[in-house]
Design goal:
Length: about 80
């Protein structure tokens, strides 16, 4: 396992230590869990871009009748 040295504000260190104690874990374990959670989150810019692409596709799709789409899908004509 690698060791790293980071600089954090003193008040944040106190919060980390309090939370680690509350969870009965080490500061390192708490920071590792927080880093894993953050890295698992989707990139906000990528999410925004996907939303914009979806909105554009809907604008380009034109109008449609939902019931007709269901009937065509049910009857195998879609």
């Amino acid at each position: 396992m690698s060791k790293v040295m980071v600089s954090l504000p003193e008040d944040l260190i106190h919060q980390l230590d309090d939370e680690a104690r509350r969870r009965s874990m080490s500061r390192s374990a708490l920071l590792a869990a927080a880093a894993r959670r953050e890295l698992a989150r989707p990139d906000p810019d990528a999410v925004d871009e996907a939303i914009i692409r979806s909105e554009q596709r809907f604008r380009n799709a034109g109008s449609f009748e939902a019931a007709e789409l269901v009937r065509r899908a049910r009857d195998g004509r879609l």
